[in-house]
Amino acid sequence: MFDILALIPGKKKKTGSGWYSFNAICCSHRGHREDKRSRGGIKYDGINNWVMHCFNCGYSCSFTLGMSITSKTRQFLLWCGVDSDQIQRYSLESLQKKDLLDFTVKRKTTKIKFDTIEPIKDSIPIDTSNIDHQKFVNYLTNRSIDPASYPFLITPYDSVYRRNRNRIIIPYFYKSKMVGYTSRYLDNNTPKYLNIGQQPGYVFNFDNQQKDWSVCIVTEGIFDALSIGGVAVMHDDISPEQSELISSLNRRVIVVPDFDKTGLTLIDRALDLGYGVSLPEWAPGIKDVNDAVIKYGRLPTLLSIIQSATNSKIKLELRKRQIAKGL
């Protein structure tokens, strides 16, 4: 198709994490100060696909062979000096290869299947206007999660298992079909969480990853993923099946482990898979992404994750030791 590195003006330098840094051309076009510190970054597979992110003004875009060129990518190419007619030709050439690529992807991913489950008896959606649902609404909002942002369920009238009246149900979806769920109980009893139908290889919130996003944030916990728009592996490891599903998104992947002893074991696995890892310098007491979103907000947390991401084992080992001292 086209060599994106050849189209970007100025010098490019390959970093140890596989990204190419350059003076971002988007900043001045978007009303920001001109970048003179190589804050632009591009990850290129050397053949067709790439993602771009500016660590100065936050602009991002990407290109995937077989897909049409998005408006953000089109704008970036215009800033690079590519004329509109050439961009249109690139887009048409990409779409012409879609059928072949679709066949290849389908052939590779036919084994990714999950069994569907029956609807949860007596479950109803959370209604923010219903006063009887207020304790569930409060729990989610206290965790900086919009109750309307996900199809949460509750069973407030369960007559068989009375404890179920005090739970929030977080359904698992794959290709819009429910394949399992987690119950988060709001009482003081244990266990707090109960997982039903969790199938090997499943990645929570995979369905909600948008095609035009250039980054996938991988967390351990469900509420971490919900609060940042990422995905969750739901334990301190990434299985081969999960990595296949995550990698099928064809974008930059950043893993943010929990800041505890078990969570930090996820770092080596992420690096082995070629993913970036982020350990932002958040305030003491913040143990995971959701804690950070509660304290700083969603956008500042997301920016801190992207800016702290690295593939350097040395940097991560030093940061891991700092975190371990505070545990």
Q: What is the helix content?
A: 25-40%
- Give the count of helical stretches: 12
Assign the CATH architecture of the largest domain: 3-Layer(aba) Sandwich
How far do the termini sit from each other? Answer: 49 Å
Domain count: the total is 3
What gyration radius follows from the Cα positions, in whole Å?
Answer: 22 Å
Task: Please state the structural category.
Answer: alpha+beta
Mean pLDDT: 89
For this structure, the CATH topology of the largest domain is Dna Topoisomerase Vi A Subunit, Chain: A, domain 2
Describe this structure in words.
This protein is α+β, with helices and mostly antiparallel strands and 327 residues long. It has three domains: 4-97, no CATH class; 124-196, DNA primase, catalytic core, N-terminal domain (DNA primase DNAg catalytic core, N-terminal domain, Alpha-Beta Complex), CATH 3.90.980; 206-325, Dna Topoisomerase Vi A Subunit, Chain: A, domain 2 (3-Layer(aba) Sandwich), CATH 3.40.1360. Helices cover 32% and strands 17% of the residues. The protein has helices spanning 4-7, 26-29, 71-79, 84-96, 98-109, 134-142, 222-228, 240-247, 266-272, 289-296, 298-308, 313-325, and strands at residues 13-14, 20-22, 40-44, 50-54, 60-63, 124-125, 153-154, 167-174, 177-185, 193-196, 215-219, 231-232, 252-255, 276-277. The strands form three sheets. A five-stranded antiparallel beta sheet has the order 1-2-3-4-5. Strands 6-7-8-9-10 form a five-stranded antiparallel beta sheet, with no helix packed on it. Strands 12-11-13-14 form a four-stranded parallel beta sheet, with helices on both faces. Strand 13, helix 9 (266-272) and strand 14 form a beta-alpha-beta unit. Helix 10 (289-296) packs across helix 11. The longest helix is centred in the first third of the chain and has 13 residues, at 84-96. Mean pLDDT is 89; it is low at 104-110.
